[in-house]
Write a structure and sequence with these properties.
Elements lengths: L1 H35 L6 H21 L5 H28 L5 H5 L1 H9 L7 H38 L1 H44 L1 H14 L9 H14 L2 H12 L6 H30 L3 H8 L4 H14 L5 H8 L3 H4 L4 H16 L13 H18 L11 E6 L3 E7 L6 E6 L6 E2 L2 E6 L4 E4 L2 E5 L5 E8 L5 E9 L1 H15 L6 E2 L7 E3 L1 H5 L4 E8 L6 E3 L19 E3 L6 E8 L8 E4 L2
Antiparallel strand pairs: 1-2, 2-7, 3-4, 3-8, 5-6, 8-9, 10-11, 11-14, 12-13, 12-15, 15-16
Helix pairs in contact: 1-2, 1-3, 2-3, 2-7, 6-7, 8-9, 9-10, 10-11, 11-12, 14-16, 16-17
């Protein structure tokens, strides 16, 4: 026994003299590196654990004489040194609670170096990633602990057979087990702290009202926050830097805010504007797409889809609303897709789509339903002001009885001339008789429509005088080529003839009566009333007063030739020379009466 002990001691001294210095140096460097990398994970603990396990395996191999002691001793010294130094560093870290490492807490320059190398990050997203890795490490440590426990049992069995060799091995196993337990306890403590931080982050993200109030207070104070930690502080800094023209720090601050996954729309719309200016729409789409993949907040996904082009953007926006029908800000953004600012000129369909979306957005204002989507309340106020102003300008565009085509029939001796009046510029017009059958285009006029810059569609078409009462369908293409209609308009030839004649009589009433026309002294002509008699039921008149005690008997209306005067009818009255005036009132076929018109004889 004494010879074995003496041999072991000699071998140990010889190995220490040869490898002690470089082993200690490498172990110290390993501990220092683990300390510097501590913000990314407890590397000192990993190194200590790995070295301890290696030392245990080497020691067992030496005891069981699986390897030569002379060859294995340097490795045992190196592993033991590394385990001791790294374990010591980890222990100091736990006692001082140095999240960035012992060296960084003692040397500010090292902390700055860590930040410049990207080792230390104040973003919560990075912390969350670290928490996930830590949880995986805890599971690995637990598995290692179970493995070590099994190894301990196997060594205990060997101890019974080799008492002298097993004594030394048992001591090593106990030391490793203590180190492992210490590391596991430290990992559990770090995991608990990380879970607490995660819970705090979720609580902050959920409290948009608290963030909004904090942002308002910071905005009133002015100036950037030197060491921001809360989402409202990051957003405040982003606005301060942006207004100062420091776009790089503004961008970093916006990304810092995004790390909290707060579901607020205004920070991301402003961030998107900054990105489009700096990186173009494609760059903004890439950055926001990366955030949207990780985020749970719908606001990030909503702003991301706005970075696509035209039709693709509108399709994605409609899909988002279908999946999130109560997400109020989406309706304001949808309205912008149909706005005059976006399109330049609006069709009636565009105006209706804009008004519908804005009405939906404003409806959420009741009971403060919009506040939860905005950190900066001034941005919400701006959106509401713009919405109300546009709804006022759009007027009653949503009234289904308004802004529909009208049809004005005009009867001639040859037939009907149908004039179409549309509520907006068109690029093509079609019509048909009845509820079925193909549409016929009216064709184009030999001129351009200044409103569209395209050939003007013919706004009229003709029908034969034999056309019976029916529905006429009208449809048209707006300036974007979208079909509007068909609109069914009732056409009654008799009613149309009467209304057309009445309109002419009312408009040209000064021509109803003509005294002594053509040099025919003593005659008063009523030729115009006679020509448009299809609208007249009765004509009463009086001479030299307004008694209206006489009546002009009109011939019946001839619908086939409505303006012809029968050859056996005299279109005049004979009057005496003492007649100085004539009063006339017409009763129309619809039951209305004209004002009493009085005509002076010259």
């Amino acid at each position: 026994m004494s010879e074995i002990a003496t041999g072991t001691t000699s071998l140990l001294r010889a190995s220490l003299s040869r490898t002690g210095k470089w082993a200690a140096s490498f172990a110290f460097v390993s501990g220092a590196i683990g300390d510097v990398l501590n913000p990314l994970g407890p590397f000192a603990a990993y190194i200590a654990l790995g070295a301890a396990v290696a030392a245990l395996i080497i020691a067992i191999a030496m005891v069981l004489r699986l390897v030569l002691a002379a060859k294995a001793m340097p490795a045992l010294i190196f592993a033991t040194s590394a385990a001791a130094i790294a374990g010591g560093v980890y222990g100091i870290q736990q006692q001082t609670n140095s999240q960035n490492g012992v060296i960084a807490s003692l040397m500010p320059a090292m902390a700055e170096l860590q930040q410049s190398l990207g080792i230390v990050s104040q973003k919560v997203a990075k912390i969350e990633k670290t928490v996930t890795e830590t949880q995986k490490t805890v599971e690995a440590v637990k598995k290692s602990t179970d493995t070590m426990a099994k190894t301990t049992e196997e060594i205990a069995l060997t101890q019974k057979q080799q008492t002298q060799q097993g004594t030394e091995t048992q001591k090593t196993v106990e030391a490793v087990k203590q180190t492992t337990d210490s590391l596991a306890a430290g990992q559990e403590q770090q995991q608990a702290q990380a879970e607490k931080l995660q819970a705090t982050t979720e609580q902050i993200a959920a409290s948009i009202d608290t963030i909004a109030k904090g942002f308002a207070q910071l905005s009133a104070q002015g100036g950037a926050i030197a060491d921001p930690k809360r989402p409202d502080e990051f957003y405040h800094n982003a606005r301060v830097y942006e207004l100062a023209g420091d776009m790089l720090n503004a961008r970093r601050s916006y990304l810092g805010f995004a790390g909290f996954d707060v579901d607020a729309i205004d920070p991301y719309t402003r961030f998107a504007t900054l990105l489009r200016v700096q990186d173009g729409k494609a760059g903004a789409r890439e950055v926001l797409g990366s955030l949207a993949e990780k985020a749970k907040a719908p606001s990030v996904k909503l702003v991301h889809l706005l970075q696509f082009d035209d039709v693709q953007r509108l399709d994605k926006l409609n899909a988002f609303i279908a999946a999130n029908p109560d997400y109020a800000p989406a309706y304001f953004l949808l309205a912008q897709e149909f706005s005059e600012d976006r399109l330049g000129s609006q069709t009636l369909a565009d105006k209706r789509s804009e008004a519908t979306a804005l009405t939906k957005f404003v409806s959420y204002e009741k009971d403060g339903g919009l506040l939860k989507y905005f950190v900066d309340q001034s941005q919400l106020a701006d959106w509401l002001d713009r919405s109300r102003a546009r709804l006022t300008a759009l007027g009653d565009v949503l009234d289904p009885s308004r802004f529909v085509p009208t049809l004005t029939p005009t009867r001639s001796n040859a037939g009907w001339a149908m004039t179409i009046s549309l509520p907006e510029p068109a690029t093509a017009i079609s019509w048909r008789l009845g509820a079925n059958g193909p549409f016929t285009e009216t064709g184009m006029l030999a001129m351009n429509d200044q409103r569209t810059g395209k050939p003007m569609p013919n706004p009229s078409f003709e029908l034969p005088d034999s056309t019976a009462a029916t529905n006429i369908g009208i449809k048209y293409l707006d300036i974007r080529g979208r079909e509007t209609g068909p609109f069914d308009i009732r056409f009654d030839p008799d009613s149309a003839l009467q209304q057309g004649n009445k309109q002419i009589l009312d408009q040209f009433w000064t021509s109803w009566i003509a005294f002594d026309a053509g040099g025919n002294r003593g005659l008063v002509y009523f030729t115009q009333m006679l020509s448009f008699r299809c609208a007249i039921r009765q004509v009463h008149y009086s001479l030299n007063g307004t008694a209206l005690d006489k009546e002009i008997k009109m011939p019946p209306c001839d619908a086939k030739d409505p303006y012809a005067i029968p050859s056996d009818y005299q279109p005049y009255l004979k009057i005496k020379d003492d007649v100085k005036s004539m009063a006339v009132q017409v009763t129309y076929t619809d039951g209305t009466k004209s004002p009493v018109r009085e005509y002076k004889r010259q």
